[in-house]
Design brief:
Blueprint: E1 8-9, H1 16-28, H2 30-33, H3 46-59, E2 68-69, H4 74-79, E3 95-98, H5 103-115, E4 120-125, H6 130-144, H7 146-152, H8 155-167, H9 172-186, H10 188-191, E5 199-204, H11 212-221, E6 227-229, E7 237-242
Parallel strand pairs: 3-4
Antiparallel strand pairs: 1-2, 4-5, 5-7, 6-7
Helix pairs in contact: 5-11, 6-7, 6-9, 7-8, 8-9
């Protein structure tokens, strides 16, 4: 994976070695951008900054390009794609299916899909009420077993799973109600970020992602994402985005 040590472009650190890497990456896309090749000299001049802006505008469909390439950023991920790659799909062609995602989180997810060269993803779950969290945990246990749930959740979640274990012979709705009561007792956000007021949380169906490696790299590269859980640790791609992130 191509890496740089610090930011390159407008307002960047512009270390010579990093600038050289970015210039070479931009030149690999010169034909795609309809721009003349840059002189690879390690100097972040107007032409280099302009090429970054054009790449962000034309290839990444950014409405307000910042002209900056940062380590592990979506721009660097997109630049590092092979020269023969087809142009990335504009965000207008990228769709999220399934559960409705809040606008700020939707923007981040579409940027991730775009950087990964993908056009669609299935959203299995977003924010939940305590009742919704209880139902989700009940279904998880039924499908994957108690041990899986104990391994997946921290101590508060384990206590909710214990309620299932102690009442598993009772009717489904009774058990879910008892689990919901325990979630409320512990504090919903301590059990799962899905019930948190501080984060956007989205679960993506792994079966809907056709290039899993590219998707994981793009998620890890996006600065708005604070946490990613993925199979086999989690049955889905669980993505957490702080609501106060400056990168939204």
């Amino acid at each position: 994976m191509t890496t740089i040590s610090a930011s390159v472009g407008r307002g960047g650190a512009n270390h010579s070695q990093d600038v050289t890497i970015v210039q070479a990456l931009l030149n690999a896309h010169a034909g795609r951008l309809g721009l003349p090749p840059l002189r690879v000299d390690g100097q972040a001049g107007p032409k280099t900054m302009g090429a970054i802006v054009e790449f962000q505008r034309r290839v990444m469909s950014m409405h307000s390009p910042d002209g900056l390439v940062e380590p592990r950023s979506p721009t660097l991920v997109a630049l590092a794609q092979p020269r023969a790659a087809t142009p990335l799909a504009p965000k207008s062609m990228i769709s999220l299916k399934g559960e409705k995602v809040p606008a700020a989180a939707e923007k981040v997810l579409k940027e991730i899909l775009q950087a990964a060269g993908l056009t669609t993803a299935q959203v299995n779950s977003v924010e939940r009420t305590p009742a919704g969290q209880a139902r989700a945990m009940y279904s998880l246990i039924v499908k994957h077993g108690l041990r899986y749930c104990y391994d997946l959740y921290a101590d508060p979640g384990k206590k909710v799973a214990k309620v299932y274990e102690q009442n598993s012979t009772k009717p489904r709705e009774t058990v879910i109600a008892l689990m919901e009561a325990k979630i409320n007792e512990l504090g919903p956000s301590t059990v799962s970020k899905h019930t948190s007021s501080t984060h956007y949380v989205v679960d993506i169906d792994p079966g809907s992602i056709t290039n899993k490696d590219a998707f994981i790299k793009a998620v890890n590269a996006h600065k708005a994402v604070s946490k990613l859980l993925k199979p086999p640790q989690d049955p889905v791609y669980h993505i957490e985005i702080p609501r106060n992130s400056p990168y939204l």
